[in-house]
Amino acid sequence: MDFSVAWLVSFAVALVLSVWAGKSAKGNPLGVLIDGRGRFSLTHLQLTMWTLLVLATFTGAFFSTWKIPDIPQTLLVLLGLASGGAVASGAVKATKDLDPGANVARAGLQDRSDGSQRTISAKLSQVFLKEEGDQADEVVDLPKFQHFLFALVLAVVYVVLTFQSSAFPDFPPEVLWLLGISHAGHIGAKVPNQR
């Protein structure tokens, strides 16, 4: 089987399974991207995106050669950064969820510090909007937006290089440094409470 065809079929199957899982869990085809607070999560988006891309490449390479493909060490570091970032982000969110003074946004009716109320519902733009304080879901969170753009561009580069080589791309270490710095900025910005 041709690598491109195997990759596209593998990606489509994994995407359908993700849609099914999201629909089953949250009643939304994109539910796999919704976190425990009922909001779309950049962390969930990244982990899902890298899972789909790497899985499609692995199965595409296997079904086109019938051999286990070589996986570059830089890709393992990339996946480690994405997974480690998800764990760290989840830890920060879980800690804040236990803090009654933290003003985190959750789906549903939310009180503002001025006594007014608003309703928050899941929307895809939340992957780059503030998730705390009175301006949650109303203002772009610059570290999240930067991280979102960097991850999106890196995913496009990954796909282009994958189709060019019919194999896992091998990123230069400098790209991984950029991704690591981007993750650190995104997670570090989550730590302080925002009012």
Description:
- The protein contains five helices and two strands, in the order αααββαα.
- A hairpin with a 5-residue loop joins strand 1 (108-111) and strand 2 (117-120).
- The termini are far apart.
- With 195 residues, the chain is mainly alpha-helical.
- It has one domain.
- The mean pLDDT is 90.
- A two-stranded antiparallel ribbon has the order 1-2.
- 59% of the residues lie in helices and 4% in strands.
How is the main sheet built? 2 strands, antiparallel
Number of strands: 2
Output the strand order for the largest sheet.
1-2
What global shape is seen? elongated
Order of helices and strands: HHHEEHH
Q: Would you tell me the overall average pLDDT?
A: 90
Strand content: under 5%
Spatial separation of the terminal alpha carbons? 55 Å
Radius of gyration: 18 Å
**Helix residue percentage:** 55-70%
Task: Write a brief structural summary.
The chain has 195 residues and is mainly alpha-helical. The protein has 5 helices and 2 strands; from the N terminus they run αααββαα. It has one domain (3-190).
What structural keywords apply?
195 residues, mainly alpha, two-stranded antiparallel ribbon, 59% helix, elongated
Give the arrangement of secondary structure elements.
Layout: H1 3-26, H2 42-65, H3 73-98, E1 108-111, E2 117-120, H4 142-165, H5 173-190
Antiparallel strand pairs: 1-2
Helix pairs in contact: 1-2, 2-3, 2-4, 3-5, 4-5
